[in-house]
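Morning run. Coffee first, then this:
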Amino acid sequence: MRAAAQDEDERTRPRGRWRMLPWAIVALWVAVIAIAGPSAGRLGDVQVNRAVDYLPASADSTQVAEIQDTLPGGESTDLVLVYHRDGGLTAADRATAARQTAGVAGAHTLTAPPRAVPSEDGTTLMYPVSTTEPGQDDEARTAFVDDVRERVKGDGGLDVEVGGPGALNVDAQKVYGSLGGPLLYTTAAVVAILLILIYRSPLLWLVPLVVAGVADALSMAVVHGLNRGFDVTVTGQSSAVMTILVFGAGTDYALLLVSRYREELTRVARPHEAMAAALRGCGPAVVASSATVAAGLLCLLAADLTSSRGMGPIAAVGVLCALLAMLTLLPAVLVLLGRRVFWPLVPVYGSEPKRRRSLFAAMGGSAGRRPVAVLVTGGVLLGALSLGAFNLPGDLKQEDSFTSRPDSVAAMTTLADAYPGRSSQPITVLAPTDRAGAALAKARTTEGVASAERGRSGGGWTELSVVAEARPESAGERDTIHALREGLDGSHVGGPGAQQMDLETASSRDLGIVVPLVLLSVLLILIVLLRSLVAPLLLVAAVVAVWGAALGIGGLLFEPVLGLEGTDPGLPLLTFVFLVALGVDYGIFLMHRVREEARRGAEPTEAALTALRTTGGVIASAGLVLAATFAVLTNMPLTSLVEMGFVIAVGVLLDTFLVRTYLVTSASVALQRKMWWPGALSRPPAAPAPREPELVGTP
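And here it is:
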C-alpha cells in the first residue's frame, strides 16, 4: 500500500521548475496588487458625472461651461429654493421663507440677494440662488448644497425643496459615488451563487471569484493611470460597466478553462501537465474572443461624446485584465490546490466521464432535422421582437434620470406644476462683451423668452441669464434654444436644456460612425480567425439581430411595465457595441470547436452537433453568468444603468439560448461546407488515389 502511494505521489508531483512556477506567478500577482492597490482606491476621486462632462469639446454648451470657468468666481452653482403648501402659502410660511433665505445669504456669498417669485395660484414661492463661492471644487459644491438644505426646512404642512442645476448635479454625484460598494458586493454575490450551482463544490467557486476580484483591482488601477496620463474621461457609468465586465467576462473565461482542466485531469496524472493541456486546448479561443471584444470596444474611441470615448478603453481594460488574471493567476492557484479543489466531484486519473443525456444534444438534434425551418422561424421571431424598438419612450429628461425621487427632482416637478408659463431652469448665453448689449436686447425679443438679465463679465465675454416661457426640456424650451442659437451670432448658448440637446445630437452622430466601425473590425477579425467569409458574416448578422430584438423587448417593457419615462440617448450605441462584441465572443467559442471537429475529418452535420453537445453546457453557463452580472445594473438607482443592464442581459440570454443553440447550429447544418467558403474546409476532402494493382508471378 505504501509503495503504491509513493508511486502515485511520484506520478502526480510536479517536476523541476514546474514545482516553483505557480508559486512565482502567485507571488508576482501579490506584488502587482500591492503596488496597484493605492491607485485603485483613488479611482472614485477622478470620476466626473455632470452632463457637460459627457459632451464633446466642440458642443456649444461645453463652450459655455468652459468660458464660465474663466469668469470672476469661476463656474457658478445655481439653486432654486422652493416653498410650497397645497392649500396656499400662509403669512407664517412667507415669513419662514424670508428668514431662511436671508440666513443662506448671510452664510454664503451669493451673486445677488435671494428674491421671491410667487406662483399665480399662491401655493409656491421660488427663490433663485446663485453663488461662485465653491469655485470648481466638487466637494465644496456638495458642502454648499448640503448646508443650504440644512438651513431651509419646512414643518406643519410647508414643503421645502432645493432644486436647480447645482442640486441636481450634487444628487447625481452622490448616486454615482454610492454605486461602487453595492455594485461590487451584489455582482460578487450573484457570481458566487451561480458558481456554487454550476460547480457543486464548497471550494472551487471561491477560486475564480477571488481571481476576478484581483482583476477588478488591477483594472481600476490601470484606468486611474489612463486618466492621469492620457486624460481618459472616467464616469460612474463606465466604472460600473468595467466592474461588471471583469466579473462577467472573467468568470466566463474561468468556466471554459476549468471545464477543460477537469476533462484533462481524467487523462493526465500531474495537475500541472493537465493545466498545460487545458491552456493549449482552450487558450487560443479565449484569447481570440477577448481580443475581439476589446477591439470592438475600442471602436468607441471614434465617438464624439466624451463619456462614450472614455468607455471604450475603460471597458477594454476590464476585459484584458480579466483575461490576464484568468490565464495566469487562476491556473497557478488551481495547480497549487490540486485535484482536491474539485471535492466532492474529484476527477480521477484514468476514469471515464459519466455519460449523461445532454440537453444540448437533444436541442442540436431538433435543429439538425429541420435546419431551414428553424432558421426561418428564429429569424422571424427576432425580427418581430425588433419592432418593439419603435415603442421606446422618448429621450430621457433630467427629472426622469433617477429611479427614485431625490430632492432636486421633486423640486423640478413642483416648479413645473406651479409655474406653467415660466421655466425654473435658466438658459445661459455667453456673448462677446462688446456686443453684450445688442445680444441682451435680441434675447429679450426672441420668441419664447420670458426674461433675460445681464450677469458677470470677464475675459472678453459677458454672461446672460435667459428664462424661457416653456418648462425645462420641453419642446417649447428646445425651440427657444434653437432660436437663440440662430439669432445670436458669435454667442454660445448653454445650460442644462442645451446640454441635453447637444447630448442627443452627439449620440446620433456617434451611432452612425461607431456602428460601421464595430461591424467592420469584428468582421475582419472573424475572417482571420475562422478562415472563412460566410461564417463571420453569419455570426455578425446574428448578433445584430439579437441587438435589435433586445432593444425591442426593452421598448415593450420600459414604460408600460417598468415605468421608465425616457430612453438614455447613448443606449442604442452602447448596447450595440457590448452585444455585438460579447455575442461574437460566444460565437468564437462555438465555431472554434466546429472548425476543430471539421479539421479532424467530421462531416459538417456531425461537426456542428458535436460542437454544440460538447460546448453547449459551458457556453450556457457562461451566458447565464454574464447576463446575471449585467442584470445587477437593473437594481441601480439610475435609469440609464437600468436600461443598459436590462437590454444587455436580455440580449445575452437570446444569444446564448436561441442564436448559438438553434440558429448558428441550424445554419451550419443547412450550409454544410459552404459555411467555410472560401477556406480549405469548404472543399470536400480529396479522395485517396487508387492503388496500383500488384502483379503476381511476374519476374
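The chain has a mean pLDDT of 87. Good start to the day.
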